[in-house]
Structures are given as C-alpha cells and as structure tokens.
Amino acid sequence: GRPKGSPGRFLMSHSYTNLLYHLVFATKGREPWLAKPLRPTLFAYLGDAVRELGGIALIVNGMPEHVHILAKLRPDRNLSDVMRELKARSSGWIHRKNSELAVFGWQTGYGAFTVSQSQMKVVHAYIEKQEEHHRTLAFTDEMRQLLRRHGLDFDEADLWE
Predict the structure, then answer these.
(1) What's the burial of 93, exposed, middle or buried (CB within 10 Å: 0-12/13-18/19+)?
(2) Is the C-alpha dihedral spanning 44, 53, 25, 75 positive or negative?
(3) What are the φ and ψ backbone dihedral angles of 34, each rounded to 5 degrees?
(4) I want to staple 25 with a disulfide (CB 3.0 to 4.6 A). Which of 50, 65, 110, 144 is the partner?
(5) Which helix (H) or strand (E) holds 25?
(6) How are strands ordered across the β-sheet holding 19-26?
(7) How far is 63 from 32, CA to CA, in rounded Å?
(8) Which are the contacts of 97, defined by CB distance < 8 A and separation ≥ 6?
(9) DSSP letter at 77?
(10) Phi first, then psi: what are they for 11, rounded to 5°?
C-alpha cells in the first residue's frame, strides 16, 4: 500500500535480490592437495555447504591448488562469514575423509567478485573450463588477472597468505 503523506511512494512487503558471487580461494601455500579423485566429492560437498548456508551453488570447480564457486548468496549473510564457514567446513571434511591430508589447510584470504546476471553464463563457462585455462595459465597469474579485471590494487607480498 501507499504510506500516508507520501504520494507516489510505495512500501514493498518483500525484498528481491540476485547476489551472484564468483568466489576463489586456494590451498595454504598453494599446495596441490586437491588431487583429481578428491575434487568431485569436495566440489559436491562445497555446493552442499553453500546450500546449507542458504545460498545456491551454480557451479563449483577448480584445480589441485584452488577452487572457484559461482553462487547466489543471501542478503542477510555476511560474505566473510560465509567464506569462513565454507573453508572451515570443507577443511574439516577433508581431514575426516583423507587422513593423509592431516596438514591440509586453506589460505587465509579469498577473492570474491560480484557478477551481473548478464555475465553469469560467461563466468559459469569460465569456471567450468578450469582444466583448459590452466594448461597455459598458472593460478597465481589467473588470480592477478581477476584482481586487475575488477580494478583491485594488491600487494604481492600479502596476496598468497
């Protein structure tokens, strides 16, 4: 309805959001701990974890030392809390499922880039084709490209913690 005293302005009873994020994070020290046989179940686990946090994982993929997630997240969830939860849950899962990865850990930081609806398919295809990209591009170079493409300054010394 229309609030009293404000002609032409309407209150909305519902909020609508489409908060798409391209999330990128690496293993500690960029160690190649995510062996090919582990990745499909890890990626499924990460997708489930996104859903448990109220989001929608559109695609999860990656390489031996890093992960990409395209996800819709809830507006009432803090991005840093979601990332902390995803990394903590998946790290615990890896430790439980793979005793040989007792030293496994994720890097401290992450990349999180907003994605417009018009670019969703492009980002989805990019994440889907990780193996193809990384035949010629190292993860460190990929991350630098993502940061530059999104207009972010970074300190090389802090980038890989």
Answers:
(1) middle
(2) positive
(3) -90, 75
(4) 110
(5) strand 19-26
(6) 56-63, 66-73, 19-26, 111-115
(7) 8
(8) 41
(9) S
(10) -85, 140
**CA atoms within a 13 Å half-sphere pointing along the CA-CB vector of 62:** 30
Residue 54 phi, psi dihedral angles, 5° rounding: 90, 5
d(CA 161, CA 159): 6
Distance between start and end Cα atoms, the chain: 52
pLDDT tens-digit map of 81-104: 999 999 999 999 999 999 899 999
Angle (CA) 149 151 156, round 5°? 90
Instruction: Give the model confidence (pLDDT) of 3-22 as tens digits.
Output: 454 454 445 557 889 999 99
| Alpha-carbon dihedral angle through residues 87, 88, 91, 92, given to the nearest 10 degrees | -160
Which of 64, 8, 57, 10 is CA-nearest to residue 37? 64
In terms of pTM, does the model score above 0.85? yes
Residues 6+ apart with CB under 8 A from 28: 104, 105, 106, 107
